[in-house]
Amino acid sequence: MMKVLVTGANGMLGQDLCPILEDNGYEVVETDVESMDITDIDSVKSVLEQENPDVVIHCAAYTNVDKAEEDLKTAELINVTGTENVAEVCGKSGITLVYISTDYVFDGTKNEPYKPDDRVNPINNYGMTKYEGEEAVRSLCDKYYVARTSWLYGHHGKNFVETMLTIAKKNGGLKVVDDQVGCPTWTVELANGIVKLLKGAEYGTYQICGSGYTSWYGFAEEIFKQAGLDVDLKPCTTSEFPRPAKRPAYSVMDNSGICRDWRVALKDYMGLRIEDEEEEM
Fold this sequence. Notes:
Blueprint: E1 3-7, H1 12-23, E2 27-30, H2 41-51, E3 55-58, H3 67-70, H4 72-93, E4 96-102, H5 125-140, E5 144-149, E6 152-153, H6 160-171, E7 173-177, E8 181-182, E9 185-186, H7 187-198, E10 204-207, E11 214-215, H8 216-227, E12 232-236, H9 262-280
Parallel strand pairs: 1-2, 1-3, 3-4, 4-5, 5-10, 6-9, 7-12
Antiparallel strand pairs: 8-11
């Protein structure tokens, strides 16, 4: 049985990924900052030597895009130094490393889906630190998968779907940015995509995101449609909704058919969400 160690196992992705790995027959070791501090090379060495996994899936990350603009030091410590530590130990031990990256490595100036080997040019600190993490993995590991994802949502963390539903129920109306385009991705789709890589894909860089694309406004529209909510939803521009970190206007990625259409995945997510609400009643 292949042994897989997951960093950031208590995060939004990790909480869906770990049971999916187990369902696919992998032995899973869950770690988080309390059990393995990725910013401490000795902690990483100790845990990986003790567990001796075949694969490490590196989900742990600093993901607050706006806060990274004012706290680059912490973002670099976690996303760059932390990833260098994990990659160094994996590389020296011959462990396969799966690194979760982001569409924000691109600048959004293209007008057709980005390919994995397209030129990167991050326009915010978060994207820069994640790209530097990618480069650390490529330079320190022979056996690796870089898995870029985008617009991630899931049942176990703050995300756009839950934010929209909460605001709609409170206010009944809202404006959402319509000039940023990307690929919404359910954590379960990403987890299943990672399993596909582990089952025999060639090492390299992949893009695991929902098929198709939409704007944040179009995403919100589909959320409310599937939830059966009548919401006074209006489009707005990025300039009307300024944020500390710049966002790519176009971050659609070519996923080579790894994931399903984003609307189909959202429907499954919404269905599970309703089941959970009914169980809690």
